[in-house]
Design a protein that fits this description.
The chain is of the alpha+beta class. It is built from 23 helices and 35 strands.
């Protein structure tokens, strides 16, 4: 062959496969039908290439040359290959008979009379095919069935079959009730409700019976986890995994197996895929989710101590208590409730959230002011041996049924409700460990709730170091990431707790009682038992888990808490009795009664001034609306209370200082008023004295209703501009000291061109002793206060509330004050009043005015 020819061939040679494909497609021109035929020929050619890599190369190259999508061409090639493969796999049958299609399972077709296939390439061929004459397979459904699990339940609505159904286009898992298989109408209707799933013409009850007889036997049997948390079968169920001798995750259907039995968690099942937000009733279950913790248990405990101090030991004890709650109940017949109370911003919510985070991820506390009774009981029963936080616990504000429920939860008392079947009832169980949070100690019913708790009082503290804030942020970061895996450290020790709890409980109880007896202290038995529960668990876990504190540390802390809780309960009992006696004495008409207006008074105000604060300062308390307040002269009321108790019961009342201290701890106590006017209708006496101030509207909610006085205070709130007549001084008036000064106002006027002199003088009393040196002769000031005008000579006395300086005389030019501050001023045509003071009484801080 000549050299020029070889050169031509080398320059113009083409791949034969690509050349043929281009030639076929070019010959079709612009005719769409010819183009389709050309592509079909190309598919047949490419399908004959056995090497997958080479075939993929040609598919990519040719799709570029002829301008068609690579995926479409590849899909067409695969379809041709599948068809050719089925032809070669055609079953050999006797002469005169038709062979089964290659995909058919011959054994199934011959024994049960049908077979099925899912064709994702040509979904329209998906379905259940029934065998007819001459081995013909007739498609009578557009879907296939895959049995997953038969759910066993004693409830009718609980018995169902999890079934995966596919039509080649989509695959879904449905819950089919047993009734779905009873008739073709129900079967097809239920499937059509789920999507594009239907039976073809000719599908009869006989076909359904064959499906039923085969598939019903294919379902494995198992139980739905209707309550998550601890299970009676001896494992802990998270929403996404089971824990027993290690973590076992659920499969895509939400099923896992323990000891040969299958369990279903609907919160983890793909049956819920595609549900709209708000329709997923298992949403809250997913908070109980196993997450491998980024911090170990000992390090978590150490960080808790850095953030919360000694109180962290109790929080850790509560974490130990939660997964063992059923053991405690079975041995002790009760389980105390963790309870945190204190002012807003005191940190109690963050503390409880840190404990709950060991079990539940990113779950908010339940607000008892906003939850319905149904939702409340659903939360109580949903998780077993898991802590749940209930915020805003205030028996005077939340629904009464919820308050009563908490009272019974320590004894595991559930709720009876109708089952919806005639007169049948069922019990809604208390499964969780309720943790209460509120601003005030729940002292109702003589402390009946407090005596069932492990109470922790929180006090607001904003004085944190940078290191403390960093530790807090670190702890909360761990909680946000998820630390629920820490709970398994506690759970895996349950067998040891079951074996040793009762004997250890008795030992700890005996030790506590012996220690208190030696100290001469007698706490309430119920309170000691409460703390014995957590001490027992802590003692047992100390031998199994490495903790950053000792049992002796926790023992000492619990002893202090026992004393504290006993004091709170004692306050509750004492104060309940105190108020009932006071109420009784206010209604009496004999000489032993308390006089409204004199021993106490009730006024409606929007602002309370002169409330004693720290040191010698005073503060003003404002109210959002007019509020009824009780002003009580405790030094008058207590002797009457103590005498009445002795007369009625023969017992001596708790001492005065203790009762007063208890009163100041109550949420209805507002503060101590530095001075307020009390008047007696019996004697005509009027006293300006200190008093304890309470929110009377709150007392009324506690069924405390006192007799009220009739008549108004005759003092008038006024503002007077005038001059200080002489330097102010401090005067001791019956066990109290006040700043005293005379305010002079020139009200002179002209009559017939003659000046008529009228000088009004008002004697002023002020409790702010720090201002004594600031009021000097000649100062022009504006005084606001309560003015009383008494007697024929119209004596004017003013209880000062505030002073505004208008003009201050230079101090170097101020004349010296009279040597005797009690000497009367020079005679002028004024109406000047001097107070008369009655003999000392029994009140502190008082001035008695006629």
């Amino acid at each position: 062959m000549s050299t020029p020819l070889l050169n031509y061939i080398n320059l113009n040679k083409q791949d034969a496969v690509v050349f043929k494909a281009k030639t076929l497609y070019a010959a079709a021109g612009e005719d769409i039908h010819l183009q389709t035929e050309a592509v079909s020929s190309i598919k047949l050619m490419l399908a004959s290439i056995d090497d997958d890599i080479l075939a993929d190369f040609y598919i990519k190259r040719i799709s570029q040359e002829i301008g068609t999508a690579k995926n479409a061409l590849a899909k067409g090639v695969k379809s041709v290959q599948d068809t050719e493969r089925r032809k070669h796999e055609e079953q050999h049958v006797a002469e005169g008979k038709q062979a089964f299609p290659a995909w058919v399972n011959k054994d199934r077709a011959n024994t049960i009379g049908f077979d099925w296939k899912v064709d994702t390439v040509n979904p329209d061929y998906t379905g259940i095919y029934f065998r007819e004459n001459n081995n013909y397979m007739r498609r009578l459904t557009n879907f296939t069935i895959k049995p997953i699990l038969q759910v066993i339940s004693h409830k009718d609505d609980g018995r169902r079959r999890l079934t995966e159904i596919s039509n080649g286009y989509t695959k879904q898992v449905f819950e089919l009730p047993s009734s779905a298989f009873t008739s073709t109408v129900k079967f097809e209707t239920m499937l059509m409700d789920f999507g594009v799933y239907f039976c073809e013409e000719g599908f009869t009850q006989s076909h359904l019976n064959r499906i039923k007889s085969f598939f019903l036997g294919q379902y494995s049997r198992g139980y739905e986890l209707t309550t998550l948390g601890w299970q009676d079968e001896g494992f802990f169920a998270f929403s996404n995994a089971l824990f027993k001798d290690g973590v076992k995750y659920y499969n895509e259907y939400g099923i896992a197996e323990v000891d040969g039995t299958k369990y279903l968690s609907m919160g983890s099942s793909n049956i819920l895929e595609g549900l709209r937000a708000g329709t997923d009733r298992y949403k809250n279950d997913r908070h109980l989710k196993y997450i491998t913790s980024p911090v170990g248990f000992k390090d978590w405990c150490a960080l808790m101590l850095k953030v919360y101090g000694k109180r962290a030991m109790m929080g850790i004890a509560w974490a130990l208590l939660a997964p063992n709650r059923d053991i405690v109940l079975s041995r002790s017949k009760y389980c105390p409730l963790p309870y945190c109370y204190g002012s807003a911003g005191s940190g109690k919510s963050k503390f409880v959230e840190s404990i709950i985070a060991v079990f539940l991820h990113d779950l908010s506390l339940i607000n008892l002011n906003q939850v319905s009774i149904f939702a409340f009981w659903a939360s109580v029963s949903r998780f077993k041996n898991v802590p749940m936080g209930y915020n805003e616990f205030d028996p005077q504000a939340i629904p009464e049924p919820i308050t009563k429920a908490f009272k019974g939860m320590a004894e595991n008392e559930g709720r009876q409700k109708g089952s919806g079947k005639g007169n049948d009832t069922e019990t809604q169980e208390v499964n969780c460990l309720p943790m209460l949070l509120g601003q005030y100690a729940a002292t109702i019913d003589d402390g009946s709730i407090m005596s069932r708790t492990l109470a922790e009082r929180f006090v607001e503290n904003n004085d944190y170091t940078d290191e403390e804030r960093d530790n807090f942020d670190k702890l909360k970061a761990y909680e946000k990431a998820g630390i629920t895996g820490l709970s398994t450290v506690i759970i895996e020790e349950r067998p040891m707790i079951e074996d040793n709890y009762l004997s250890t409980f008795k030992d700890v109880m005996s030790k506590l009682n012996a220690d208190f007896k030696e100290e001469g202290y007698t706490p309430k038995t119920r309170v000691v038992e409460n703390y014995t529960v957590v001490l027992t668990l802590m003692k047992l876990y100390q031998g199994a888990i490495d903790l950053p504190f000792t049992y002796d540390d926790f023992y000492a802390y619990c002893k202090d808490q026992i004393r504290n809780l006993n004091t709170v309960i004692a306050e509750s009992n004492t104060l309940g009795e105190f108020w009932k006696v006071v109420e009784s004495l206010s209604d009496r008409v004999d000489g032993l009664c308390l006089e409204p207006g004199w021993d106490y008074k009730i006024e409606t105000v929007t602002e309370l001034k002169g409330v004693l604060a720290e040191g010698a300062s005073k503060k003003v308390i404002s109210f959002d609306k007019p509020t009824r307040l009780l002003f009580m002269r405790f030094t008058n009321v207590y002797p009457a209370y103590a005498k009445e108790k002795r007369n009625v019961t023969g017992k001596v009342a708790i001492n005065e200082s203790t009762v007063k201290a208890y009163l100041t701890e109550q949420k209805h106590f507002i503060g101590t008023s530095a001075g307020s006017i009390f008047k007696s209708k019996k004697t005509g006496l009027k006293k300006n004295t200190s008093s304890m101030v309470f929110n009377y509207e709150t007392l009324l909610l506690n069924d405390i209703n006192l007799m009220e006085s009739v008549g108004d205070d005759d003092r008038v709130l006024v503002t007077i501009d005038g001059h200080v007549e002489r330097d102010a001084f401090i005067q001791h008036l019956l066990n109290t000291e006040k700043v005293v000064f005379m305010l002079t106002k020139d009200e002179s006027y002209q009559r017939d061109n003659v000046r008529v002199e009228k000088i009004t003088k008002t004697k002023c009393f002020w409790t702010d002793l720090s201002q004594a040196n600031n009021l000097k002769l000649g100062d022009e000031i504006r005084v606001t206060g309560l003015l009383s005008i008494q007697g024929e000579k119209q004596w004017r006395n003013l209880e000062v509330q505030s002073i505004e300086v208008i003009r201050q005389v230079p101090r170097e030019a101020t004349p010296a004050a009279p040597a005797n501050p009690y000497a009367p001023p020079s005679p002028v045509n004024t109406q000047l009043s001097f107070d008369r003071i009655d003999p000392p009484g029994d009140d502190d801080n008082q001035t008695d005015l006629f």
